[in-house]
Amino acid sequence: MLEIKVKYFEELTTQELYSILQLRSEVFVVEQDCVYQDIDGKDQKALHVLGFKNKKVVAYTRIFQAGLYFNKSSIGRVVVAKKERQYKYGYDIMKASIEAVKTHFNQTEIKISAQCYLKQFYMNLGFEALGEEYLEDGIPHITMIRK
């Protein structure tokens, strides 16, 4: 079971921030072999959802209020450490993120830019695909909405 913490950027400890950036780099840059600018200046505006196991960050998302990233609230940088995926922590961190959007932003409609291979995962969480697939940083994505 994950211990979930939801924090604004200013509330993150330096160790938490380091762990987040390390996990994102481990998965998005190294594992997915994608060279892109992860540190994009948006973390300061996001609400961060951290999933801890044995005091280590193993799952993470960042969420935005409507208007800060998309015209609807959004969840991004959804990541689970490779060796922890067998425990289905992706569902735990996403459910916590959906709940955080409701609690912190009083919103239920959420827009995401999902990697296409994860479409069914997001559909299981109530998201619906919208429009055509597109490339983002060389990886096929699709817009998805949860109402």
Describe this structure in words.
It is built from 3 helices and 7 strands; from the N terminus they run E-H-E-E-E-H-E-H-E-E. It is α+β, with helices and mostly antiparallel strands and 147 residues long. The protein has a single domain, classed as 3-Layer(aba) Sandwich (Aminopeptidase). The chain has a 7-stranded mixed β-sheet with strand order 1-2-3-4-5-7-6, sandwiched between helices. The protein is globular and about 40 Å long. The model has no long low-confidence stretch (mean pLDDT 96).
Mean pLDDT: 96
N-to-C CA distance: 27 Å
CATH topology: Aminopeptidase
| Uncertain stretches | none
What share of residues is helical?
25-40%
Number of helices: 3
Q: Proportion of β residues?
A: 35-45%
Topology order in helix (H) and strand (E) letters = EHEEEHEHEE
The computed structural class is alpha+beta
